Amino acid sequence: EVAGVEVAGLSESAREVGGDYYDHIPLGADRVLLVIADVSGKGVPAALLMSAFRASLMSQDTDQTGPAEIASRLNEFLHRSVEPGKFVTAFVGFLEGRTGRLVYANAGHNPPALLRADGRVEWLSAGGLILGILAGSPFESGEVTLEPGDLLTLYTDGVTEGADASGDLWGEERLV
Q1: Mean pLDDT score across all residues of the chain
Q2: What integer pLDDT is reported at residue 35 of this predicted model?
Q3: Strand blocks (E) in the chain
Q4: Are the CB atoms for 132 and 88 separated by under 8 Å?
Q5: Are 53 and 39 in contact (CB under 8 A)?
Q6: Contacts 24+ apart (CB under 8 A), 70-74
Q7: Are 37 and 21 in contact, with CB atoms under 8 Å apart?
Q8: Is 125 buried (19+), middle (13-18) or exposed (0-12) by CB count in 10 A?
Q9: pTM for the whole thing?
Q10: What are the average pLDDT values for consecutive 10-residue runs of the chain, which has 176 residues?
């Protein structure tokens, strides 16, 4: 429970195990860390890499470190730890429930959709490259304020690239 925010999630793996991950990690009375990530590849190898990503994330000092710095540290860890061609996309955001302030970094992940109460949509893309490919990649933070009635949707490409029987992708427009 985070004061001022309602958080819900769902994960359905394409196989028995996979490389998608999401979490909401309480950081005190009204702060929560929102994370969603996706590893290149599928199955057990992707799940193992995601486990390493999560362990590295959980080792970060979330009281003293902002999302851009966390993304940078995760990038360096993955760059040193994974075989060439493997990578992780991720979104890391610190949300203050009472104020609605969200400070985030998007590391090449599908940009979360912020559906405003008035129907406008904002895509949260500030950040940098995917994680693990290039050492020293720069990351920047973005910031938005969620207002009452807004809906923030974090998702992986499994949603927007899901296809129906005729091969039509779900897409971002239908996601909104």
Answers
A1: 91
A2: 97
A3: 20-26, 31-39, 88-96, 101-107, 113-115, 121-123, 127-128, 142-145, 151-153
A4: yes
A5: yes
A6: 70/105, 71/105, 71/107, 71/127, 71/128, 71/131, 71/139, 72/137, 72/138, 72/139, 74/107, 74/131
A7: yes
A8: middle
A9: 0.92
A10: 84 75 90 94 87 94 93 96 91 96 98 97 97 96 97 88 84 84
